[in-house]
Design a protein that fits this description.
By secondary structure, this protein is mainly beta. It folds into 2 domains: 2-143, Jelly Rolls (Sandwich), CATH 2.60.120; 150-241, Sandwich (Jelly Rolls), CATH 2.60.120. It is built from 2 helices and 19 strands. It has helices at residues 7-10, 150-153, and strands spanning 2-5, 15-18, 24-31, 44-50, 55-56, 59-60, 65-76, 81-83, 87-91, 100-113, 121-122, 139-143, 157-163, 172-178, 183-185, 195-206, 209-211, 216-219, 227-241. Strands 2, 3, 4, 5, 7, 8, 9, 10 and 12 form a 9-stranded antiparallel β-sheet that branches. Strands 1, 13, 14, 15, 16, 17, 18 and 19 form an 8-stranded antiparallel β-sheet that branches. The chain has a two-stranded antiparallel ribbon with strand order 6-11. It is globular, with a radius of gyration of 17 Å.
Length: 248
Amino acid sequence: MIYAANSEKTLAEKFLTLSGSGHKHYRTDFLGRKGDPRIKGKPQAYLLDLNADEVLPPHFHIIDQFQVFFRGNGTLGRNADVLQPVSIHYADHHTGYGPIIAGREGFSYFTLRPEADPGAVYLHKEGYREKLEPSRKRHHLVQTRINAEPAVIHSGVTQECLVEKGQKNDAGITMLRMGADAHAVAPDPARSGGQYYLVLSGTLLHDGQPYPPLSVLFVDAAEPAFEVRAGRQGLEAAVMQFPDWSEE
């Protein structure tokens, strides 16, 4: 199945929420609405807009996830890795990371999961060890750039591999760049736990509809390789594939 969320419609539905660290900030649910029991087992994608100097303490989730930092700036982790747009972070399930510290401009990022997660488990709170389970504890952190007018910059199709997906239980990250009206067959999701497409600039055409920047699509592993079509503005999109844990 393919799940799709158009940013023009979805961004109008952002709402204030209280984080587990006690901060109020804006959240926008793209796939899977927070608190809705029907999202169990389905993909979950949302956008957080952190306030200036806001801190999210170290924590983990029980589901694999990608995070795409695309606006503002900040740091991630004890080594204070500086993140600038566009930075993509992957973490295995039950793998601690953080803190995330927003800079003076604030920090906006997507969290993308193959299925809904019940919420962060903070490492400074009692009882977190009882919630840990075996994990490979892998992280990937890569940075890339986008162009405001991809149709002018690009012709044809290029696929830049940022993190190679070798085995079924590996994650993968590819930047897809396409000229005006170009089309391409994306990496096959069959050896993955599903894949996300995040439109970063230009337009992606799907099922007769245009998907502008910050639109999100999820393709599950049962689907054939996704045929990506760019609009007249061209397209730059991050393609993120999850590990397949089905045989472990």
